[in-house]
Design goal:
Distance between the termini of chain A: 45 Å
Largest sheet of chain A: 9 strands, mixed
Number of domains of chain A: 3
Number of helices of chain A: 21
Helix content of chain A: 25-40%
Number of strands of chain B: 2
Oligomer: heterodimer
Shape of chain A: globular
Structural class of chain A: alpha+beta
CATH architecture of one domain in chain B: Orthogonal Bundle
CATH superfamily of the largest domain in chain A: Periplasmic binding protein-like II
Number of helices of chain B: 13
């Protein structure tokens, strides 16, 4: 049973109609726009004539209408553009369904252009038949509402960007890119290259970005006018997938990649496409590869004679040694306990192997209370209690990372973005390097593997314009062709396998590439990741982060931690609104783990 | 008296701006929020009417709303009563003309001219566990010289466990000045003769305050209490900033929970339900305070 708005939606076609005239000397008589009556009688007849007489009211086929002035190169005499919603049983609806853009002559001097599918939200339509009743309230009320409406409309529209319309034979793709640590200069350079290469096809890529991108893009998704592609992590993507607001990249993934003959899909590091894969369809393309490890200053290690630990006991011994020399062993981004999630997931794999990761990804009840999971939580808690820098739980990521680059703490668990994030504060001579989360004694997991995943995903909103260009541009952006330049320009490891040559990146990122090489098992890169943090937004915010915080502070036991996490998962299962898509199971045997 | 047409136009014209602003920015969004609170809506799909389910969820969920409410209540009662007593004390002292009253008045009022976000950031730095942290620095100095307090330093004041308590001094520092000026202005309005009479009768400064000052600023005091309750219930920036835009159940107050539910978890219905309850609470807090304190105003 659908709601009223859905029922409506099933029975209507939306269109944008431009009404104009052939000659310069005759004008549409009725220039005053007041609801439906503004449409010339000819148009009304054309639309409504064949409808059965049972319909009441002046215009049963026309469900909603609003108007705007347009500039349209193709029709110099276009006078007004109307957004229409038409019932399916009117002939114009069928015309629209057949053609992408049609020019319909109505009478000798008037014509209109139709374009289907411009209005996406029938329930939010500007036209409401009840508005006319307002006139009874007299002019003050009407004027007041008009002014309020106008103010709201101008501020609303002015505050938000809108896609630049196509003009002539030019087709414009709007790309909105989150402006974070990596900036958008490189993306703009690639967009310019792409535009130059497609000059003859009349394709232009408008690429813009800013730090608060999510706030700009979300209203546009609601409005049904989103950019062609969006790179942003703070939108509810699973929700958008389930409501059909994102397009899959499946067809594009089958095409050969730029700079290679092989299909695009085969070139990705296995696992990096999994994050937003639903029923076999890939809804997001990562633009960078994220790896989780422990970072240290090789120079400091050399000077003190410390060596990189391979196992957890070695790691603890190293921490004790560092502590004995009066240095804090580990900095930690304590204001965001979420940072320890990735270390915890790494330890889950170390203790329980990929089969445990599979069970976590499968949201198995009670999985966080299994002995292996409890052991991971205990290791994390012990590490925090013994080795975290004093006061770390009140430090932000930048504060704690600053402690690390200033050698006040010897190591820090962080993602591959650390170098870029601290690039202005890393002192000269600091040799930033990364090592894998150490192996635990008797652990079931293959310790060569690491927590790695696709990041900085690009999405293709279903209502954005030119999805063909959008998909093609994404394929161009994330390609073997551009990966080396990406590494060189902004220090990003491409999710394209082997796409980023060692020579293109800094020594810090080279150490990540080394970690990847070591993790390569039987020719497959040994990476794993847990999807719960991006899949379950509420669980993430209300259960996982506070529970991790409490665990690290020592205010709950690992058992209580496991129970809190499990209880959260139980509530997820009880909530029918939460979509839990299928996921790709890891094969423990393929990575040399016992099953 | 019959109104002329000109008068009507005049009235309408003068009422229109306020009416428009109120309609556009308060009434319509308010009603919409009320409707949202009865819907299940993620901001993208079609809203679905669910009746009071969102409100039920507030109280049966994992209790995060109740925790937030508790934090609000704590801040209202503890910080509120501290602000109230301190501001009354300072106002009374300044009213009795201590030396340097003007300087104190400016100094106490000063936090009010700083943006609340800047204040929160300032206190983040004060509390910092890095070398910037003045508070931890002072504690460390005390510990080395006096041997007290014997705790593990630096103390994570803004860590999730302690944040709500750490906010109290900040609120007191921020808000006392405003209420002090408010009460002081009321006290300045009391005719000097009352005090002269009290003095002749042999009343001590304390009983003068209790029997003369307090009853005569009653009206303003009540307004102050209402303001305080509303401000503490609607508290947002300190928690939001001090917890780095990422509060969790340990630190949520109602306003931050509302924001996070709507803008991070896309649960518009739940967030609106919080907003509606927040409104109801503020409304009743105001109503009750006003009702309890209703008494004839003394004219002098």
């Amino acid at each position: 049973m659908g709601t009223r708005a859905q029922v409506l939606h099933d029975r209507i076609t939306t269109a944008c109609i431009s009404i104009g005239k052939e000659s310069q000397h005759t004008w549409i008589a009725n220039t005053e726009i007041r609801g439906i009556r503004a449409v010339p009688r000819y148009v009304q007849q054309e639309i409504c004539a064949p409808l059965p007489a049972t319909h009441e009211g002046p215009n049963p086929a026309l469900l909603s209408l609003n108007s705007q002035r347009v500039q349209d190169d193709r029709a110099p005499y276009v006078e007004k553009t109307f957004n229409l919603m038409l019932r399916h049983d009117c002939p114009l609806s069928r015309t629209l369904a057949r053609r992408d853009y049609s020019r319909v002559l109505i009478s000798g001097e008037f014509y209109f252009y139709c374009r289907p599918g411009r209005l996406a939200w029938p329930s939010r339509s500007l036209y409401n038949p009840r508005v006319s009743k307002l006139r009874k309230l007299g002019w003050p009320a009407a004027a007041a509402f008009a002014l309020a409406g106008a103010t709201a409309f101008t501020t609303w529209d002015g505050a938000l960007r809108a896609a630049r319309p196509d003009s002539g034979t030019t087709r414009r793709l709007e790309a909105a890119i989150f402006e974070g640590g990596y900036g958008i200069n490189w993306h703009q350079k690639i967009a310019a290259q792409y535009t130059r290469a497609h000059e003859d096809d009349g394709i232009v890529v408008d690429l813009w970005g800013e730090p608060r991108l999510a706030e700009k893009v979300k209203p546009r998704i609601l409005r049904g006018d989103p950019p062609g592609i969006v790179l942003e992590s703070r939108l509810p993507f699973w929700l958008m997938i389930s409501t059909g607001k994102l397009l899959p990249f499946d067809d594009e993934l089958a095409k050969p990649a730029y700079g290679s003959d092989r299909p695009w899909r085969e070139l990705f590091i296995p696992g990096t496409l999994d994050a937003y894969t639903s029923d076999g369809s890939v809804y997001a393309i990562p633009t960078s590869f994220g790896a989780w490890g422990c970072w240290y200053d090789a120079r400091q290690f050399r000077e003190h004679g410390w060596s990189v630990p391979k196992t957890w006991p070695e790691f603890e011994a190293l921490c004790d040694q560092i502590q004995a020399e009066g240095i804090a062993p580990l900095a930690f981004q304590g204001k965001y306990p979420y940072y320890s999630w990735f270390t915890y997931v790494s330890l889950l794999q170390r203790c329980g192997g990929l089969s445990l990761i599979n069970r976590v990804n499968g949201l198995e009840p009670g999985v966080f209370s299994e002995p292996d999971a409890l052991r991971a939580a205990r290791l994390l808690q012990e590490m925090a209690a013994k080795y975290f820098q004093k006061g770390a739980m009140a430090m932000t990521h930048t504060e704690s990372q600053l402690q690390f680059v200033n050698n006040k703490a010897a190591m820090i668990f962080c993602g591959v973005w650390l170098e870029n994030e601290q690039k202005d504060t890393i002192p000269p001579g600091f040799e930033l390097r990364c090592f894998n989360v150490p192996a635990v004694e008797g652990g079931k997991g293959n310790p060569q593997m690491f927590n790695g995943l696709g990041m900085e995903f690009i999405f293709m909103p279903a209502e954005g314009q030119h999805s063909d260009i959008a998909a093609d541009f994404t394929r161009y952006l994330v390609s073997p062709l551009n990966a080396p330049d990406m590494g060189e320009s902004i220090g990003v490891i491409s999710p394209i396998r082997g796409g980023t040559p060692r020579s293109a990146v800094s020594p810090a990122l080279q150490s990540v590439l080394d970690m990847m090489d070591e993790a390569s098992i039987n020719g497959a890169p040994g990476i794993f990741s847990c999807r719960l943090d991006t899949l379950l937004l509420e669980w993430h915010q209300q259960v996982m982060v506070p529970a991790l915080g409490a665990l690290l502070e020592g205010s709950i036991t690992p058992e209580e931690f496991g129970k809190r996490m499990d209880d959260g998962i139980t509530r997820v299962h009880a909530n029918p609104d939460i979509i839990i898509p299928n996921f790709t199971q890891y094969d423990p045997a393929a990575f040399g783990e016992a099953t | 008296m019959k109104r002329t047409r000109e008068q009507t136009i005049f009235i309408v014209l003068f009422l229109a701006p306020a009416f428009l602003l109120f309609t556009g920015f308060v009434a319509i969004p308010g009603v919409r929020a009320l409707l949202y609170s009865l819907q299940k809506w993620d901001g993208l799909s079609t809203p679905e009417w669910v009746g009071l389910a969102n409100f039920r969820e507030l109280f049966t969920d994992d209790g995060v709303f109740l925790l937030a409410l508790e934090h609000n209540a704590f801040l209202t009662l503890v910080a509120g009563s501290m602000v109230l007593s301190l501001s009354l004390f300072f106002a009374a002292v300044l009213h009795r003309r201590v030396r340097g009253a003007t300087v104190f008045r400016v100094a106490f009022f000063f936090p009010n001219v700083i943006a609340s976000v800047a204040i929160a950031l300032l206190w983040v730095l004060l509390y910092s566990t890095t070398d910037f942290g003045v508070v931890n620095g002072a504690l460390r100095w005390m510990e080395t010289t006096l041997g007290w307090p014997d705790i593990d330093l630096p103390f994570p004041f803004t860590g999730k466990q302690y944040l709500i308590y750490s906010i109290v001094p900040m609120l007191v520092w921020t808000m006392t000045g405003f209420y002090m000026v408010l009460f002081l202005a009321a006290m300045e309005g009391i005719p000097e003769t009352f005090y002269e009479v009290a003095e002749l009768e042999g009343a001590s400064p304390l009983s003068q305050f209790w029997h003369v000052t307090l009853p005569l600023i009653r009206e303003v005091l009540v307004v102050g209490i209402v303001f305080l309750a509303i401000t503490s219930l609607k508290l947002f920036e300190p928690v939001w900033i001090m917890d780095n835009e990422w509060p969790s159940r340990d630190t949520h107050v109602m306003a931050t929970l509302l924001y996070q539910k709507v803008f991070s978890e896309y649960n518009v219905g739940y967030g609106s339900a919080v907003a509606v309850l927040l409104f109801v609470l503020v409304f009743f807090a105001t109503l009750v305070t006003l009702r309890l304190s209703r008494r004839e105003a003394l004219e002098y």
